[in-house]
Amino acid sequence: MSENALTANGLTKEYPDFLLNNVSFAVPQGKTVGFIGENGAGKSTTRNAVPGRRRKDAGGISVLDKREHEMDNAVRGKYLLAMMSNKRMDLQ
Predict the structure, then answer these.
(1) What is the model's pLDDT at position 75?
(2) Which CATH code, of 2.40.10.120, 3.40.640.10, 3.60.110.10, 3.40.50.300, is assigned to 4-85?
């Protein structure tokens, strides 16, 4: 089993007036994480890139060692529900 519930590697998203550039992080299983920063810092852009809510220009996401292309809609739905409700993910 994976040590990390969520891993992001090199997330990049470019808009006309904003660049989220090469963001990487890992969230260990059982931990709660929040993004803190100024307006326009990229918090929502990062959250929406995980997994597949918004198209990325580069980078990848994995949830419990499942990469985006390996996730079906049920796994994505469970992830999004866990993200919104702060409940532990059970992707089995």
Answers:
(1) 66
(2) 3.40.50.300
